Amino acid sequence: MKKKTRIIIIIVLAVIIALLLSYKLIGGAIMKSKTRDYLETKGCFAKHIHSIKVKHSFFNKLLSYDEWYIVANLYGSHEFTFTYRDKEIVLTGIVEDNKTLPSKEHYEDLMKKFESGELCNPMEVSEVIEAIDIAYNYLPDQYKERITDKYTAQVHFDYLKYNDSILLADPAGNSKTIETGNIILIIFGMDGMGTADTSFPIVIDGVTHELIGFPFRI
């Protein structure tokens, strides 16, 4: 009788272990698939994804914490971490290839680029050059003379997508605040020539490429 009881207990335990392993394996495959689908909504496809790793914790589940921990490595360097919450894949953070957190500025930049889809699909070089050339033509001559290489300018597409507003002077010299709109911010680097000014920002319309104005401060 005792032997029979032991056999039943062993069988029950084996079934439980098998079910738990199946849950992790099947669930892990589902999490990978859902993560790929989520990444595709951000413009990141198979050619951008170096790997997706999934970890599961029953202990976390018992404590009502997130049971799934997902790491997607993009380009072999940026590791974006996710979890599965409320039936959705949720972005939780970023670590670098050396397993450390990036600097605050770099972290925010990566998050913005990922959320906007720019990380996996950066603007074409031709688009950047075109924006620089258009903005450069709007610059006053005295500033053009101080720019040594215009193509080193910083170009920020859809600037107001990530910033609430921008204070600038319009072409007529009037100050105004822009809070919405598809604008492109270009910041030209300049020779200081004994002054404190080493950069000159300019904003153009993202659609018409017309001059909107010159920001007072970025």
Walkthrough of the structure:
It contains five helices and ten strands, in the order H-E-H-E-E-E-H-H-H-E-E-E-E-E-E. Helices cover 35% and strands 28% of the residues. The strands form two sheets. Strands 5-8-9-10-6-7 form a six-stranded antiparallel sheet, with helices on one face. The termini are far apart. It folds into two domains: 2-116, no CATH class; 125-215. It has 218 residues and is of the alpha+beta class. The mean pLDDT is 82. Strand 9 and strand 10 (211-215) form a beta hairpin. The longest helix has 40 residues, at 2-41. The radius of gyration is 26 Å and the shape is elongated.
Helical coverage, percent range:
25-40%
Strand content: 25-35%
Radius of gyration: 26 Å
Q: Report the average pLDDT across residues.
A: 82
What would you call the structural class?
Answer: alpha+beta
User: What's the number of helices?
Assistant: 5
Order of helices and strands: HEHEEEHHHEEEEEE
Choose one word for the global shape: elongated
Number of DSSP E strands: 10
Total separate domains = 2
Low-confidence stretches: none
Sheet with the most strands: spatial strand order: 5-8-9-10-6-7
Distance from N terminus to C terminus (CA atoms, Å) equals 81 Å
Largest sheet: 6 strands, antiparallel
